[in-house]
Amino acid sequence: MEKKSISVQKTVTLLTVIIFFGVLTWINFFCYRRFVDSDSAAEALLAMRIRGTHHLFPETWYISTDRRTIATAVLASVIYLLSGNISFSMALSCTIFSVVMAAALIYMLKGAGASQLTCLTALLLIMALPVSANGIMFESRFPYFMTLLYLFASHYSGYFTFFFLTAGVMLRMRGEGSHKRANSLLILQGLLCITAFIYGAAGMRGMQLIVFPFLVHSAICYLGDSKGFTAKAPGSLKVLALSGIMTVSALLGSLFSGAPSVHTGMSEARHLFTYFVTAFFTNPASLLGTQKTESLSDPASVMQLLMWGSVIISLYALCRLMKRGKREEKLLLSFVLCSYLLTVFILTVTRFNRAERYSCMAVLIVVLSLSLFTEHLRRGGYDTLSAGLTFFFVFYALLNLIFTYIPAIADKGWDSDSEEVLSWMEEKGYGLGYARDWDADRLMVKSNALITFGTVTSDLTLDENGDLVSSRWLTDMNWYPPAIDRDQPCVYVIPNDSEFDAEIKPFLEAHPDAEKAFENESYVCYLTPEVYVN
C-alpha cells in the first residue's frame, strides 16, 4: 500500500512538472516578443551582435556588470545562425538551459540521497513557488524569479547549474564510490575549475554565489571534521582542495582584460541595519512575491497566503533538517545558506547595488528545505503528512498556473500598440529610431532587428546643443552618432503620457523641424529629418 501511495504521488507530481514546464516553454516560444522586458531583450540583441561580429565579446557592445560567457545569449547566437529568427533562437536557448539546469538539480539531490519523488518535488517548487508581486506583475506579467531561471533570458540559469554541479560533486567526494565514479568525478572537478575561470572572467557574480561560498563552506567543514586539524578527514580535505583550486581559477579569470570591474565603497555605519534588512528579508520577499493582501476574494491574495504559508513551513523544515536530517542533507543546506549569508554580508557592508536578484539563493533555501522535508517525514514514518505536503505543492502549482500564467498569456497588453508603431515605421521606410531604455531594446527585438533602436535617458535629458542624451547601457555604439550618419530621418518613440509631454517639450523647442508623425494609446512618435542624439 505504501509503495502504491508513493507511486501515485510520483505520477501526479511528474504530470504537474510536465504541465508547468510545458506552459513555460509555450510562453518562451509564443509570447517572447509580447512580454520580453528591456534587459531580456538586450540579451537577444547581444546574441545578434555576437553572430554579426563572430566575437564572443563584441568590442562595440556596452556591457553591464557581467560579460556573457555561459549564457543563453551565447547559445542563441549559434541558433540564430541557423534560424534567422532571434525570438525563436532565444526561446530555444532558454529552454535548453532550463533542461540542463533541471538535470543538474537532480544530480545534486541524488548526491544527497534524495528519492525520485523528492527530485520531482524540488523541480516543481523551483518553477511554481514564486508568485507575481501584483497578481500579474508589471509589464512582464510573470514573477521576476522566473525570468532569472526559465523565461526570455534566463539570466541566472547558468549560475544555478554551476551551483548544483558544484554541490553534487562536493557531496559525492565525501563518500567512497566506485573507481568508475571516481573517474567521472575527476572529469567533473576539472570542468568545475574551468567554469570557475570562465565566470571569473565574466564578472563577480559567479564568485559571489558559488566560488567564495564553496571555499568558506569547505574550510569550515574541514575544520569540524578534522576536529581542529587533529584528526584525518580525507573527504573534507579533498573538497577543500577543490574549492581552493576553483578559487584560484576564478581569480585568474578575473585578471582577464575583458572582465568587467565593479567599483563600490563601504557602507556608512548608520545605514548598516537598513541594508541588512533589505538584503536579508526585503529582497528574498520580493523574489518570492509580495503585495498588500486586501481581500481573500482576490486570487492573488490567496496565492500570497499559500506561498507565505509554504515559507513558514520551510523555516521549520530547515531547522528540523539541520538538527535531525542526514549528513548529506545538512551539508547541502549549509552550502546554500553559506552562499546566501555571504551575499547578505556583501550587500550590507558595501554600497553595491542591492537588486533583488542577488538574493536568489533564498528561494533555493525554501525549495530545498520543503522538498527534503517531505522525504524526511516519510523516513520518519509520517507517510500521510508527507503525502499531504506533496499534494499541497501540486495544488499550489496548479493555482499559480490558473491565476497567474494563463491570464497573462491571454493578455495582449503592450503588444498591439508597439506593433502599430513598428508597422507604421516599416510602411514609411524609417529604419532608425530612439526610445527610452525600457522601450528601445524591446521594440528592436520585436522588429527582429529590421529597425534599429538606440536608447535615450528615461527622463529625456538634453545636452548643451538641445540633443537627446543617449543611454549607453546594454546597447551597441554603432547605433549612435558618430558611428551612424546623422543626415537621415529619425523617429523618437515617447510614451503617450502627460509626464513625457512636459519632458519632450524642451527638445521640440530646440528643434522646430520635429513633427508629431504618429500616435496611439501607448506611444507618440516624433519625426526629424536628421538625428538629434549625442
Give a quick summary of the entry.
This protein is mostly helical. The chain contains 19 helices and 5 strands. Strand 1 (432-436), helix 18 and strand 2 form a beta-alpha-beta unit.
> How are helices and strands ordered from N to C?
HHHHHHHHHHHHHHHHHEHEEHEE
Report strand %.
Answer: 5-15%
Low-confidence stretches: 135-140
The biggest beta sheet is recorded as: 5 strands, mixed
Assign a percent range to the helix content: 55-70%
Distance between the termini: 73 Å
Strand order within the widest beta sheet: 2-1-3-5-4
Number of helices: 19
Description:
With 534 residues, the chain is mainly alpha-helical. Helix content is 64%, strand content 5%. The chain has helices at residues 2-30, 32-35, 38-53, 72-83, 86-111, 116-128, 144-149, 157-173, 179-202, 205-225, 234-254, 272-288, 299-324, 327-349, 361-379, 383-410, 414-428, 437-446, 498-510; strands at residues 432-436, 452-456, 490-495, 515-519, 523-528. It has a five-stranded mixed beta sheet, with helices on both faces. Helix 18 links the parallel strand 1 and strand 2 (452-456). Helix 13 packs across helix 15 (361-379). The longest helix is centred in the first third of the chain and has 29 residues, at 2-30. The N and C termini lie far apart (73 Å). Residues 135-140 have low confidence and may be disordered.
